[in-house]
Amino acid sequence: MLDELVTVLSRCKRCVVLTGAGMSAESGVPTFRGDEGLWRKFRPEELANVDAFMANPELVWEWYNWRRQLMAEVEPNPGHFAITAMEKWFEHFTMITQNVDGLHRAAGTKSILELHGNIARNKCLDCNRPFEIEGEIDSGQIPACPKCGGKIRPDVVWFGEMLDPETIQSAFSEAERADVFFSIGTSAVVHPAASLPVTAKRQGAVLVEINPERTPLSELADFRFSACSGELLPSLMDALRETSGGGD
Ligand code: NAD
Ligand code: ZN
Fold first, then answer.
1. Which tens digit of pLDDT belongs to each residue from 7-16?
2. Exactly one of 80, 92, 116, 191 is catalytic; which is it?
C-alpha cells in the first residue's frame, strides 16, 4: 500500500497535514483519550474549559504547570522530523496542528497553523493580551493582567471556545486546495478541526489516515495506515526519496 501511495504522491503538488495528540504520543506526551491522559482522575474536559478556570483557577493552573513541565522535557520523534522533510519535498505544504506542545516547530517545520494555541504562552482571561513571565506561574498566586487586572491563563483554546478566525480560515482554504490531505494521530471528533479532512476530500484531495485505531474518518480515507506515526512517516519519506532518485 505504501508503494501505491508513493505513486499517487509523486503527482501531488499541494500537501496539507493535520496532526493531533497521537503525533506526540511517541515523544511521551499523553493523549487526552488514552488512560494516561488522566491527571488526578480528572478528565481533560473537566479542566480545559473556562467554567473550570472561573470556579477553580488554582487547580487548572496546577494541571497546566504539570503539562508544561512534561512538554518541556520531551523531544520531537522521528514522525515530526519526517514531516519537516515532507515540507521540503512538496512544492506547497501546510501543517495544521491541534497540538499545543510546540514539537513541530522544534523539529524544524516552518509553515504551521496552531489551531489550539501553544501551551508555553500566557494571555489575559479578560482582554486576551499576551503575558510574558520568567519561570512558571505560581498557581497559589496567579498574576493579574497589567492592563486590565484580569487573571492570567494559558494561551490555548479550551473546550467550548472559538478558534482564532484567521487561523481556522487559512486552514480551511488550504484544505480546499489540497491535492493530498494527511490526518495523523487525531481522533477526528473535535470540531472544527475534524471537518478539515472532510472538506479536503470533498474538494478532490486524496485522503490519507495514519492512526493505530479507527476513527469516524477511516471510512472516508483513500489510504488508511493502522500504524504509529513515528514509524510510518519515516518509511514513507524513505520510499518517496527512493522513487525520486535519492537526494534530500
Ligand atoms: P485525542 O487524544 O482525542 O486522540 C489521539 C489519537 O491519536 C487517537 O485516535 C489515537 O488512536 C491516536 N494515536 C495514539 N498513538 C498514536 C501514534 N503513535 N501514532 C498515530 N496515532 C496515534 O487527540 P486529538 O484528536 O488531538 O484531540 C484532542 C485535543 O487534545 C486537541 O484539541 C489537542 O489540542 C489536545 N491535546 C494536545 C496534546 C499535545 O499538544 N501533545 C496532548 C493531548 C491533548
Ligand atoms: Zn487584560
1. 999 999 999 9
2. 116
